[in-house]
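Per-residue structure
===
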Amino acid sequence: MKKSKTTEHFATICLCLLAFFWGISGLFAHSMTPPPAKGKEKLIVVKNNKLIFDPYEHVGENTRILHIGVATQPKFGTLNFRNDNTIVYQPNQDLCEETDEFAYFIETAQGTETYEVNVEILCESLTILSGFSPDSDDDYNTFTILGIQNYPNNTLLIFNKWGEQVYSAKGYQNDWKGTEKERPTTADEGVYYYVFNDGQGHSYSGYVQVLAGS
């Protein structure tokens, strides 16, 4: 039986539409399925403030970014992508003392990469943690002062329970692991007294506990 021209024309249209939608579905699958994350960025923001960061730090200023998208939405805030390709993270109103996480992907001519972000939402611009365990595998295995990168001219003094100075630093960078003058302290754990000056006329003092074990 001879096929009519109308039937052949209809079949051609169907094949074209099928090929078109197949290509479109592949495009969406590529955009919505970014590769595993290369690493995790750790950032800090104070409550009711915005955090703006530049993805060009990953790909280089001379690289053309084709597309940026969200791989995982934040739980405690919102993400916005600006026309200049910078990313704005805004924590929820009045929220603090939380850690948020999200992921975004960057597509360039070289391929697509995914980056995870960990954000500490502080109540104040400077937060001094009250304890740490040097043997722990978590992020806080040193005496940690959140937001310290904003105070490069800081000084830190640490004293043991007998009032003896066991540590001092100018431009402290969250690297004291409970050592006494670069040697392990005589006690595996204990409470130490610190005096921290932010280099901008403000001084903070208090106690930090060094815990043994993980």
Remarks:
- Residues 5-32 form the longest helix (28 residues).
